[in-house]
Amino acid sequence: MSYTDTNEGKIAHAHDPRYGINVMIWITLLSLTVITIAVAGLDLGNYTLLVAMFIAAIKSGFVINYFMHIRFEDLLFKLFIAGVIMVLLVVFVLTALDVFLR
Amino acid sequence: MSDSTVNTNGDYVNFYQYKGKHSGILGWLLSVDHKRIGLLYLGSMVLFFLVGMTLGFFMRLEMWNPGQDVMGPQTYNALFTLHGIIMIFLVIIPGIPAGFGNFFLPIQIGAEDVSFPRLNLLSWYLYTIGGLLAVASLFLSGGPIDTGWTFYAPYSLRTGTEVIMPLMAAFILGFSSILTGVNFVTTVHRLRAPGMTFFKMPLFIWALYSTAWIQIIGTPIIGITILLVIVERLFGVGLFDPAMGGDPILFQHLFWIYSHPAVYIMILPAMGVVSEIIPTFSRKTIFGYGAIAVSSIAIAFVGTLVWGHHMFTSGMSDESRWVYSFLTFIVALPSGVKIFNWVATMYKGSIKAETPFLYVMAFIFLFSIGGLTGLVLGSLATDVHLHDTYFVVAHFHYVMFGGTIFIFFAALHYWFPKMFGKMYNTKIANIALAIMVVGFNMLYFTFFILGYLGMPRRYYDYLPEFQGMHQFATVGSWVLIAGILLMFTNLFLGLKNGKKAGNNPWGGMTLEWTVPSPPPLLNFKKIPTVKYGPYEYEHYDEVTKNVN
Fold first, then answer.
1. CATH of domain B24-544
2. Of the candidates A87, A90, A98, which has its C-beta nearest B317's C-beta?
């Protein structure tokens, strides 16, 4: 139904293979995983969780932007992702309100 | 676009008559037509609803006398668990979106189908597999699960009953729900007919759209939580079991982060149906279209943040308790916006009190009681007194049953002529509704009083002073079931022998009323161009003059 598929061209373009970048991202993700495991062996006290979450957030950023192609998509998709991340943050804060103040 | 609405002789062909690649039962099981898939869902849900209702019937029978009547405590525990799992995961959550949403979303936005028809069929198969697994778990060696539908840890980690299979069932059902959500969001964004802007969409579509977002965002959380419980049961990891250093309240957080928004997955589509039925039978433009549309999004958003009100007595921090209590009260605002706008729509309308409209009236009455008693439970002090009593059971049955299921029935009566091209006996339908409302209130209003007096939920036994009220409620359950059976029988007879329904028997203005009953395979002979809002009755003649 051509009258609605106005983004067809852009989507096709977004799926162009970028093997070089994808392999680099993959290696970065593997490296970050190694760092996560290494850091888990250190005694960082209360910061253990924060550090692990920080590394996980960086990894998610790479996956969302490159493997999920969001970097190359319309603004609408980026807004959706931003909205979902906001909800996730609020959920974290509300849960932390209990866990840390109980 | 090939013309699927006529055969080689030029006669009109509806989607039942259309000869595709497969015929007979395969024509249904392998069809990717959104209407057939919607009907598959509806058929499955009615079946599961009858199973859940039968379980409820036996639970009430057990409560006739104090002590053991027809079953022991273990069987009673299994019965209320399965009643909850079946009614929530197999009937109410998928209910209106997967059944009526699948059938009517593409037609109401002027599309030929959903964006991903094959994914749609896969959703139904996942739903069926999940449902069968839940029922099959009854017959495994460990015995039926007895944790309650909430699977609270650490009990769900330690009970000897069969827990993993029903958990897997819920996990698979969750996948089905996510796929439906993804399909609906994409369809609404990409397949709207020319001219149909977001603010010209029917309010049912707004409700489905908001619901779809909750399905996408919330459901993975319950999926992960379920997997964690399975991992802990199998490998003793110690995530939720305090004996192994775990945190059982964390399980409650994770469970309710999904399961409270799931309440809005259940009720928002019902509110969407109400917003369709009221203008149609008031023959009047809906009051506050924008406010109702935006309130759906607001309920979806704020509803995502209030899960902690299920945990006021769990031992969580005081700061959390008042924050969640405060947020809970905020949800009442967009809900109130809807109720007031519906009532304002009826004001000075040319009301035709047909069966679907009467169902909506019953809904407003029952849902208001459910909603207001929700505020009693949302208040910290009163919740401590009423937590885990029959008051809570009464509250959520008024909201879930009096709200969602009554509107599921309303939708069934509203769209029946469109889906099947036939009409049921409206007089019997009205009588069935009256019987149901009487039985419903006998059963569940008594629960409010029992709960206030201290009757705890999930007990197969009770103190002798509660016997009179328990027996009154049980008689109410019989009246309610009689009404439900009469309603289904009437619809079945309408399906078999009912008079032919016109294309627009109620005088509706949304696009489904501009196509024949039942609709053709691809819904429209020609994709319509939308000029007016969905309830602008001043343009009624222009919009409905040419049945597509």
1. 1.20.210.10
2. A98
